[in-house]
Automatic annotation (TrEMBL):
Membrane-spanning intervals of the chain: none
CDD domains from the UniProt entry: SRPBCC_4 (cd07822)
Protein name as catalogued: SRPBCC domain-containing protein
Pfam family of the protein (one): Polyketide_cyc2
Length: 160
């Protein structure tokens, strides 16, 4: 199988909020895509954006995540899973400092399309006082990193 290269990316920005949505069509069934997405121990082998993700995949569970949106930047943080629908959706809420400094609601959705195909949607809404200072990274580097991860995940899912 080959990965369909139809990917989309959109970014909306306001003074203290950035919303990013990326998606990719994948020539693999929903279960295969979900399996790759939730095998977080394997992320260092293939994922150039989320370099580490540790923690129980359960509602309310705290995660240990290291992201590297570019080759020169990186950040570790501890989001909490706020929604989990096995096989379909995983959402976490991460914060830098206190609530309102920089909050990120990150969502992964795997949609079945039939005929052994699916769509991965990766999105995040970032809000808070740091958004104006980080706007360039949040509106350029971060969406590019999401799209890169989506393509890497798609390649891994179709290779399985």
């Amino acid at each position: 199988m080959t990965t369909t290269t139809r990917a989309t990316e959109s970014v909306e920005s306001s003074p203290f909020r950035v919303s990013i949505t990326t998606s990719i069509l994948i020539d693999a069934p929903q279960a295969a895509v979900w399996s790759v997405l939730t095998d977080t121990a394997a992320y260092p082998q293939w994922n150039s954006f989320i370099r580490r993700w540790e923690g129980a995949l359960a509602p309310g569970a705290r995660q240990h995540v290291r992201i590297e949106p570019t080759t020169t930047s990186g950040q570790s943080f501890r989001p909490r899973i706020i929604d989990l629908q096995p096989g379909r959706e995983l959402t976490w809420l991460g914060r830098v400092g206190l609530p309102g400094v920089l909050d990120g609601r990150h969502r992964f959705v795997v949609e079945p399309l039939g005929e052994g195909r699916s769509r991965l949607v990766q999105s995040e809404v970032l809000s808070g006082a740091l958004v104006p200072l980080l706007r360039r990274m949040l509106t350029v580097a971060t969406p590019a990193a999401f799209s890169r991860m989506n393509a890497e995940l798609a390649a891994r899912a179709t290779a399985a």
